[in-house]
Design goal:
Number of strands: 14
Number of helices: 12
Structural class: alpha+beta
Strand content: 15-25%
Distance between the termini: 24 Å
Helix content: 25-40%
Amino acid sequence: MPARVTAAVTGTGSYLPPDSIDNFQLLAMGTLRDSFDVGQARSALRGVEGVNGLSAAEVFDQWAYQLTGIRSRRRIPPASDLTTEDMCARAGLAALEAAGREPDEIDQLYVATVSPSDEVPNSACTVATKIGNPRLGGFAINAACAGFVYGVGAGWSAIVSGMAERVLVISGDALTRLVDYTDVRTAVLFGDGAGAAVLERSEADHGVLGPMASAGWFARDPLYLSGQSWRDDGDRIPILHMEGGPRIVRNAIVKMAEVGEQALDKAGLGWSDVDFVIPHQANARITRGLEQRLELPKGRVIHNIVDYGNMSASTVAVTLDEVVRGKHGPVPNPATIVLTSIGGGYTMAAAVVRI
């Protein structure tokens, strides 16, 4: 019987801008302060002692944390010329270093982003040049928050089919540049960052075991980029909007559990075989709800939105890098990890990875 070919994760990397903006700094932005209803937020707080004595900034911090689980988020400074592709390149080079590979040893590059600097050339072309291999083939993926896991599935497919021996999958977004800072419920959510993984052909009993992708179309999606917004200088830019509510939270929990289970079925495994679950970090209410639904021991479902915010598809990529590097506790050898995500569209994707 021929050996089973799969895609092993041989290196991971990430890049986070050194700048961060906490909830207090966010409120200090004049446009957001004007749109924040302190009285309404104060009345919505639960379990906070002395709530009536809190300042407007303290109310905002508590309200934002209870609503999203976020205290601060990473961001590219407004005056910086750093781009989405720059962050992707730095994350990609870190993953290559971890894998012990050079850029010219990679056969394909896939870049997941919803905030590219340009439509043409696409982000994969730009990132390939920035990492030092401008002839590297690949493409950009727009699957919103599921983009990195879509890329892992595409990389697995390319390797299993024989199209490539090694694939570099990167996700990066500069969402703080797209946020509408008059929309308080959207402005609190998003951050900037990038993550990456190197996939290589393997015949061992590890690697990507069960990739799965699906979608469910909605006429009015909760997450969308509007191309009809304009800067004061006349340039058109997309503005990021995010709608919330119990229906959105419940749907995200259910769908990430379902697509994760489908990936496990393809791998011939169950939730009891899983050491870590890395869900898209859209909101702490979602990741905590997923943890409760799966009924896994504490520590197996990873939560890190508190310091990063929602970085779209990069949340899974960055968290995978953190898990691999032991930031979330000891890593068994081997370790079975489920990546699961849901994004605008809705796009949904999951993958079982054994490292």
